[in-house]
Amino acid sequence: MTRRIDGFGHEDHELLGAQVRDTASGKVGVLVAVVVERVRTHCGTQLVRQAYIKNGRGVEWTTSPSRVSPVTPKRPTSARWSNPAA
After folding, report:
1. How many CA atoms lie within 13 A of 28 on its CB side?
2. Which residues make Cβ contacts (< 8 Å) with residue 28, sequence separation at least 6?
3. If we measure between CA atoms, which residue out of 39, 64, 61, 42 comes closest to residue 52?
4. What is the rounded end-to-end Cα distance, in angstroms, of the chain?
5. pTM, full prediction
6. 8 Å CB contact between 29 and 19
7. Which H or E run includes 82?
8. How big, in percent rounded to 5, are the helix, strand and coil portions of the chain?
9. Tens place of pLDDT for every residue, the chain, 86 residues?
């Protein structure tokens, strides 16, 4: 997949606007942006990809885009499969 980056460093991502899980923290929210940012380090500056996730209370955090996974809705199990003795 080709990544398109706009003038602000925002990338296209297949999960933008979807409910996702940050696998590093286990927190769930909506992926609002994937951005390439210039970050200062002890060795100077580096370009870093950051995923921005926002929860239902409006709290936003960043994580690596590689640590973002889609949240799949839980499917109800039938009574037959939930009780092996039946």
Report:
1. 6
2. 19, 20, 21, 22, 55, 71
3. 61
4. 47
5. 0.74
6. yes
7. helix 79-82
8. 10, 45, 45
9. 446 666 667 888 899 999 999 999 999 999 999 998 888 989 899 988 999 999 999 999 999 999 999 998 766 655 555 555 54
